[in-house]
Amino acid sequence: QPFLPPSGEGCPRKNADAVQDRDASANPSSPIIAVFKVFQQELDTKHDKYERLVKISRDVTIESKRTIFLLHRVTSVPNAEDILNEADVKLDAVRQKIGLIAEELRGEDIYQFHRAFTAGIQEYVEAVSFLHYIRHRSLISLEEINARLVFMRTEKVDPKGSDEALPLGAQVLTFHVTPSDYLLGVADLTGELMRMCISSVGNGDIDTPFQLSQFLRQIHDGFSYIGNTGPYEVSKKLHTLRQSLGKVEDACYALRVRGSEIPKHMLADVFSSRTTLLDPEEGVV
Amino acid sequence: MSVTEMFSYIQGFLSADQDVREDIRKVVQILEQNAREILTVLQSVHQPSGFKEIPSKCARARELFCTVRTQLADLKTKFPVEQYYRFHEHWRFVLQRLAFLSAFVVYLESETLVTREEVAQILGIEVVREKGFHLDVEDYLAGVLIMASELSRLAVNSVTAGDYSRPLRISNFINELDSGFRLLNLKNDPLRKRYDGLKYDVKKIEEVVYDLSIRGLAKEPESGVDK
């Protein structure tokens, strides 16, 4: 009886032979190989589109964030209008990028690629709603956001190329921000509003905090109403939202109680940490 | 529109969305039950007595797929057809299961790889997204990989049941599947993870074949892949 090694321990030679045999049986003209080549193309096409959308979304995120930083400067400059106009220009550029997203999604099921661009869209909602609040002291609606995400695309141009000629086959392309992305963008907006509140106090503006407090409270109440029925990311952001609201409410409290006592240039220090606002000697409310 | 009105509108939207998902969940639950029944029928082929009864078990499974077709037809009605991927996560698991079961039945019947079109036909759904509720290529591939694991188990149990030629045919088949999968450029997603398991199936079957051949229990494997 020859000694048979336990089959669990493959000797290197056996495995090398097996690999050779395996590849030899991979007949390139076999139907299985042929069909997998088709799958390869299908998957590659889908992955490529996804990656293109990720890239555009990243640009959208970066430019939207820069717009938000820009907008924070309105509290510290004399002429806010210049900043607002510059922000308009920047957001127009962002909208053009969103138009590119809309083109990629033409004919597709947008939810198949949603994860690729949701972060960028949320950031855009945050930026555009921030600008809207600064101008109008109100919350931009989802409808208003989507109304500005309508793009004209021309399929063919008049061969004569004159400016008066109408483009042939002009197409209207739209991008719809979903209610869920809108919600998440607005949740992030509250963080920026909180920062704006604190910095406006530091600049001696004692009206803005009270306006912001009321506005933030309305938004917070809206999120409480929605509760757990929204996407789960909303529940996570609700915690941060409560903190932001708390900071703003404490700022208003301090202004009301102690505002007249504190020199304007020191107001900002008062709100640098929440713990300083509750002085035990004065009695905690 | 005031803040309150805006949130009220959104709440309405979310509430409607939840209702749709609830409807979908109910149908998916029934589908999962159907899938379990088909699996119970097919799993019995692993028993020594089961090998002779393969044709009747396949016939029985095909009968049960009729119910699946009805359920899937019902599922289609629960949401707008162009929003397939919005709700896809709800049925992804059971659809992969059903793809596996279809592939398994077809393999038991003909020892070939079921095509995506055949699976769609068995389930009564489309292959192309634009035509309606469809079988995504990744769900089809996941089903095929689940079947690969099942076949590695079948190879082992074939030997136990005294069938020494089946493992060799399974080995050829799985090796070819492996070559096919290697052509794919997969991303680091669940499909990739599942594909990583294929090499263990390949190895297990190779060891069965090795055990048979060194003991002289197996004849030369036929290169009959194109049955």
TrEMBL record, chain A:
One cellular-component annotation, GO: perinuclear region of cytoplasm
InterPro entries per UniProt: Translin_C, Translin_fam, Translin_N, Translin_sf
Keywords recorded for this protein, A-Z: Cytoplasm, Developmental protein, Differentiation, DNA-binding, Golgi apparatus, Isopeptide bond, Magnesium, Metal-binding, Nucleus, Spermatogenesis, Ubl conjugation
Pfam family, one: Translin
Binding site for Mg(2+): 126, 192
Keyword Cytoplasm: yes
Composition bias type Basic and acidic residues, residue spans: 11-24
Segments crossing the lipid bilayer: none
Coiled coil: none
Swiss-Prot/TrEMBL GO biological process terms: cell differentiation; spermatogenesis
Cell location: Cytoplasm, Perinuclear region; Golgi apparatus; Nucleus
Keyword Membrane: no
GO MF, one annotated term: metal ion binding
Disordered: annotated segments: 1-27
Family classification: Belongs to the translin family.
Role of this protein: Acts in combination with TSN as an endonuclease involved in the activation of the RNA-induced silencing complex (RISC). Possible role in spermatogenesis.
Assembly with partners or alone: Ring-shaped heterooctamer of six TSN and two TSNAX subunits. Interacts with GOLGA3, TSNAXIP1, SUN1 and AKAP9. Interacts with the homodimeric form of C1D following gamma-radiation. Interacts with TSN and C1D in a mutually exclusive manner.
Record's protein name: Translin-associated protein X
Lineage of the species this protein comes from: Eukaryota, Metazoa, Chordata, Craniata, Vertebrata
From TrEMBL, chain B:
GO biological process, one term: RNA metabolic process
Gene Ontology molecular function terms on file: endonuclease activity; hydrolase activity; metal ion binding; RNA binding; sequence-specific DNA binding; single-stranded DNA binding
Major place of residence: cytoplasm
Domain of life: Eukaryota
Keywords: Cytoplasm, DNA-binding, Endonuclease, Hydrolase, Magnesium, Metal-binding, Nuclease, Nucleus, RNA-binding
Keyword NADP applies: no
Subcellular location per the Swiss-Prot or TrEMBL entry: Cytoplasm; Nucleus
Pfam families with a match to the protein in the record: Translin (PF01997)
Keyword Nuclease among record annotations: yes
Subunit structure: Ring-shaped heterooctamer of six TSN and two TSNAX subunits, DNA/RNA binding occurs inside the ring.
Protein family according to the UniProt entry: Belongs to the translin family.
Protein task: DNA-binding protein that specifically recognizes consensus sequences at the breakpoint junctions in chromosomal translocations, mostly involving immunoglobulin (Ig)/T-cell receptor gene segments. Seems to recognize single-stranded DNA ends generated by staggered breaks occurring at recombination hot spots.
Protein name: Translin
Annotated organism of origin: Dicentrarchus labrax (European seabass)
Taxonomic lineage from the root: Eukaryota, Metazoa, Chordata, Craniata, Vertebrata
